[in-house]
Amino acid sequence: MTITGKKERLDRLAELVNRDDERGVSLWQEAFRRLRRNPAAIIGAVILTVFVLVALIGPFFVPYEPKDTIGIREGVVKSGQGIIPGASAEHWFGYDHQGRDVFSRMIVGARQTLLVGVVATLIGLAVGALIGGVAGAAAGLGGRWGRAVDNVLMRIIDMMLALPSLLLAVSIAALLGASLSTVMIAVGMVSVPVFARLLRVSMIAQANSDYVLAATSLGVRKPKIALTHIVPNSLAPVIVQATLTLATAIIEAAALSFLGLGNPDTAQPEWGVMLADAQPYLGIRPALAIFPAVAIIITALGFTLLGEAMREALDPKLRK
Amino acid sequence: MALLDVNDLSVTFARRGQRTVHAVDGVSFSVDAGEVVGLVGESGCGKSVTSMAIMGLLPRRPGTRIGGTAVFDGTDLLGLDDRARRDIRGRDVAMIFQDPLSSLNPVIPIGLQVTEVLARHRGMTGDTARKEAVGLLDRVGIPDPNRRLKEYPHQLSGGMRQRALIAMAVACRPRLLIADEPTTALDVTIQAQILELLKELVQESGTALVMITHDLGVVAGMCDSINVLYAGRVVETARRRPLFRTPRHPYTAGLLGSVPRLDSGRGEPLNPIPGSVRDVLSWPEGCAFAPRCSRRLDACLDETPPLVRTHDGRSYRCVDPVPLPGVVPAQAGQPGTPSPERNEEETRD
Amino acid sequence: MTDNDILVEVRDLKVHFPIKRGVLFDRTIGHVKAVDGVDLRIPRGQTYGLVGESGCGKSTLGRALLQLTAPTGGEVVFDGVELTTLPPARLRAMRRRMQMIFQDPMSSLDPRQNVESILTEGLQTHGIGGNRDERRALIGEALDKVGLPRWALSRYPHEFSGGQRQRIGIARAVVLGPELIVADEPVSALDVSIQAQVVNLLDELQESLGLTYLVIAHDLAVVRHISDTVGVMYLGALVEEAPSDRLYTEPLHPYTRALMSAVPVPDPDVEDRRERILLAGDLPSPANPPAGCRFHTRCPWAQPTRCADERPVLRDIGGSRVACHWAERIASEELRPNHAGAGVTRASDGGEAPESVPIPAPTVKADSTDG
User: Fold this and answer.
1) Which of A71, B310, C56, C248 could form a disulfide with C233 if both were Cys (CB 3.0 to 4.6 A apart)?
2) Rounded Cα–Cα distance for residues A293 and A290 (Å)
3) CA-based nearest residue in chain C for residue A29
4) Which of A147, A217, A224, A235 to mutate to test the interface with C (most CBs of C within 10 A)?
5) What ipTM does this complex have?
6) B4-13 β-sheet, strand order
């Protein structure tokens, strides 16, 4: 070993004690680093980026007005006689049964689908997190009265859980009348129990941890402990669930539209509605069903891949 | 020929995108029948991985590589196929783990778990097996063994579970028993019971025992010969008394100096080893203990110190061992300050 | 000793946890008497060590003392103030003066807080340090005291080794300038070579800051090293309390003797010479403790009279407090261990192989389990 080699080693030794130039890496940052290294997360993120970009800026660049029954006007589409032309240079995905441009409808429908998925998930997350958060904090820190509050809230959640999710959505939709917001509320309410229970269980586990005891022994007030310690440490599973719920929300919204409980303005493109509309023409032009179906599946897959990757990245047991 | 001869055992874990970990690096030791050999070290020193590798219990992953040999009674355990290894395991070689609850099947009564072992390795069935199981439970000091046979692991206390596990381990009168931190999860009074039981088993049946522990006190009372591990390497091997009286490796000496003793006074400051094992991770070559060593020389940073064997059967990996009492070291360097002028003499080792 | 010198006094402290069962409505079917009538006093500036095996109630006692677990009965007087009846706001203010160090440094630090935030929290809560700079100065001092570098401030707990994490936990406690620190198993989660660093640190801090400690641990060697007075707990009650040196040279309670004889010492000569008192069986369930002396089911010296029906109280015997009816006669060796409940192993002198004297297995209640 040369003298310089030796010097390098001594420098490394010094480095071991002197690492002040680096900044700390929080658990969130660390999870993000792990996420970036996961191929599934990358694939999911790419799919979703494309989807979101299409949904946000696509509608400004569509070649045709999506509600325009151009094919019927020009006389090329006669769905009564089973004539629906397929792809062509002008109409990449062909016409639908009302002579509208399917490509334009798919792109504009992406925005609708994203909107329904995101808003529905946010509704579920907001209501669920509120109930779960209150129940979790009450059960974890509130003593005897807290446990009573928790009991009442959880029985309500149990009742919601007891109903099959689609049935619950259908009843809500039937109750409020078919509209776009009905779909969002219905799909959102279905995910409320999941978020509520998840956050509650996670918070109760954190409330029994040593660092909460440590904060108590410092003299920190209970509400502050709940907000600064318990909630941040309970969020990881909820975030993962939200990502996964986006996937199911899109599918459920499509299902509701398919059942005719969606937006009454059926001319407004939406993947679920398009799927429903395509049904009578499956024999003539199966592509009409395949386009929205594949789009729904790929989008849901994107959210699921990302969600599962996040679950792995945020799992403290896998951290090394 | 020793009963178990572990030679140059190494285990590396390679994971994509991460540094390869040398969990065990050239570990050699041997165990004779009726002998108690200790593997001592702190967390991450490779003592448990060593035992898992010998038992063939390391999970098979693409990045895991095991090298060296572990010859038990003429057969290399590392070269066996799964079937042959399963036959040897439990019959000739048995293992006891730290956490008895997770090593017992929670949904099967204790008795059935013991008779299963008897059926598999000794071909005992029915009443014979039952009687033998009762005898075994009684042997390991479980009161009322007839009733205990029908109980499930969760119905037993920690100490009783560990006894049941020992009963299963000794059911086939193994010739080698590997105990991985068998008493760490237990209270001291229960620990004393279990250690006493293990001692009796060794004395009565001539079983060889490999005792893996971090507790120097346990080692002092149990082991005939001791291997001290640090960062995957055996840094010192000695018989029990010489090791505790005159530790040669600075790590061994440091460990002994840092443990508070029941028979020492209040307030005498302890002599801790500075730093932590974590510092080793960024220390691929040279002596892994060098970053924490008060006797460090420049030579320690360059290459792995060779194994020095002394005439009294001891060995250690250190270029500048702690001098024996009464012996004035030939080169009285100042410990703690690496002195460059000493390099020439030291590097020739 | 005048009362002014006593920082903490615990009187007849009881913590009983209800055992609940029930399908629709929880019904209390019994109580786990985790702490069942403990009296102790800790003089200012001294260390009181509490030892005992798992389930003896030592951790619960520590938490009840700090009012982190509500006591079922009894009093805790801290510097003249009775804590159990204190209104919540005043208790919170009081917490600045009594802090805690936890066993597991990882789980007792919020993984999402960096060190600066961990150390600031207490200061903010108690309004210590007017602005950020003042608080930073205080935090810097605390880091120096526990031997952590300044770069630690922006780091998160998972970026440190076990020993360093424990130092963060200690810094969190001392930054508030407390008088009492309850340390619950402060070193048992650490590697052997690191334990000594933390033990020395605790000693140094006591010296420089005049701290009073209650150290709770199962490791008798650590407790002996660090404590002035040691209390031994068994099934929710103190069985012996003595000055540290005296307890180790002259243990009076049979349980203390057994405990002491069971601790392995890293010295082959001591190990070979020692006489081991092996206790039979396991700890009885604290939900259903034995009548009379709680230790009598496992006691090698148990006598046919008194032990089984009369609960012994702590008595003064030559500077120790002992809860045993027969302590004097055991000490004078007038009473010998009867072999019904124990085995005594005597190692043969000097030989490598100790010779064991097996004693017939116990017959009484020794098989009671806590499952």
Assistant:
1) C56
2) 5
3) C112
4) A217
5) 0.83
6) B21-31, B4-13, B64-72, B75-76
Tell me which chain B residues have a C-beta less than 8 angstroms from the C-beta of C346.
none
Contact C196 B203 (CB under 8 A): no
Domains of chain C: 3-19+31-234 (3.40.50.300), 250-346 (no CATH)
Which helix (H) or strand (E) covers residue A213, if one does?
helix A210-218
- Residue ranges of chain A whose pLDDT lies below 50: 1-4, 13-21, 320
Task: Search chain A and give the residue with CA nearest B274.
Answer: A17
d(CA B76, CA B5): 9
pTM to 2 decimal places: 0.83
User: Distance from C268 to chain B by nearest Cα, in Å?
Assistant: 5
B341: left (phi over 0), alpha (psi -120 to 50) or beta: alpha
DSSP secondary structure string for all residues of C288-340: SPPSSSTTTTT-TT--SSSTTTSPPPPEEETTEEE--TTHHHHHTTSS---TT
Higher pLDDT among residues C18 and B328, named by residue: C18
pLDDT category of residue C341 using cuts at 50, 70 and 90: very low
Report the gap between the CA of A206 and the closest CA in chain C (Å): 10
Question: C221, C51 in Cβ contact below 8 A?
Answer: no
Q: Is B301 close to A13, i.e. CB distance below 8 A? A: yes
The ranges assigned to domains in chain A are 27-74+97-318
> In the prediction, which pLDDT does C77 show?
95
Residues of A with Cβ-Cβ distance to B290 under 8 angstroms:
13
Chain B nearest-CA distance from C324, in A, is 19
| CATH classification code of A27-74+97-318 | 1.10.3720.10
Q: pLDDT tens digits for A67-90?
A: 777 777 777 767 667 676 777 777
Structure confidence by residue, pLDDT tens digits, C210-257: 999 999 998 888 998 999 999 999 999 999 999 998 998 889 999 999
Name the β-bridge partners of C229: C48, C243
- Per domain, the residue ranges of chain B are 101-171
pLDDT at position B64 is: 86
pLDDT above 50 (res C84) = yes
